[in-house]
Amino acid sequence: MSGTDPAPSAPRVPARAWLRPVLLLVGGALLTLLMVLADQLIAAIAVGAFSLFMAYWTSPLRSGPHTPLADAQAPMREADGTAPTIVLWAPGDPASARLQAAIRAPREDLIWVNVFKDPAAQQLLGRYGGERMLPLALQGEDAARIDSVSELFAFQDRTRQAGAPGGATGAGSTTPEPGADPPGRSEAPGGDEPGSPRA
Hints:
single chain; alpha+beta; four-stranded mixed sheet; 38% helix; elongated; disordered N terminus; disordered C terminus
């Protein structure tokens, strides 16, 4: 028998990922029922359809763009300045949904990795602080939590100018420490931490 731990056969979807879609579905069903009882059939159909869509959109059932992490990391080993940025995301994560809604068209400089479909990606995310860091952008050895498209583009510019991929000169400033508070999620309202992508 080998002394090494076997790689997980399938990624684990946390139960809390189902909370939002279930609430949306139940709330939408109740509101639809009330409208049916009030003889507002057209409004009931609209609310019911919208609730179903939102429950699906915020649930782990939504597939979205996905490339296995091993395939996504292959171009990074070429060590050229045009290597794409890997974005770790998860269905049901509001920040991931906002970022994908803003970037609808495929881009050659971005590779999306669904952590609920890839055990290796889920393990990598855990080393950077877990699901609270989603969506997590990776460029070489640099990493940062991204809240918006402008932060994503700023992260790409910063890491590529610093020598990424490879991370030889720029890894320290953007790579979050495991267990540390994620950049861009300061406890103080409206407060950005010095190490956040907004700084």
